[in-house]
TrEMBL record:
Annotated source species: Paraburkholderia translucens
InterPro entries: Post-segregation_anti-tox_CcdA
Pfam families: CcdA (PF07362)
Entry protein name: Type II toxin-antitoxin system CcdA family antitoxin
Keywords, comma-separated and alphabetical: Toxin-antitoxin system
Highest taxon in the source lineage: Bacteria
Length: 90
């Protein structure tokens, strides 16, 4: 069997579908009813919102864990300027 980009995409969607976990989400009735009436895909919207929330939380935690490094780097830049600043084209 020859694998093409389309075949790989189909395979990844199949694997992704198998790796999903069912979960319950409780919504206010008005949100549920309006979303349903508009034909919105609750699973897709929730997944996108969760991915964004995870991205933001990881960034927040990284900044918290690396606060000393960030402060040291900022102090260095204030004292010495940006490394290779003289080579910048803008």
């Amino acid at each position: 069997m020859r694998i093409t980009a389309d075949t790989e995409a189909d395979m990844s969607r199949t694997v992704e579908a198998r790796l999903r976990k069912a979960t319950n989400v409780t919504l206010p009735t008005d949100v549920y009813e309006e979303g349903k009436a508009l034909g919105l895909n609750f699973s897709r919207i929730f997944e996108q919102a969760m991915r964004e929330a995870i991205r933001v939380e990881r960034g927040r935690r990284w900044a918290t864990e690396n606060v000393d490094f960030i402060a040291a780097h900022n102090a260095f830049v204030e004292k010495h300027g940006l490394p290779l600043a003289e080579r910048r084209m803008f």
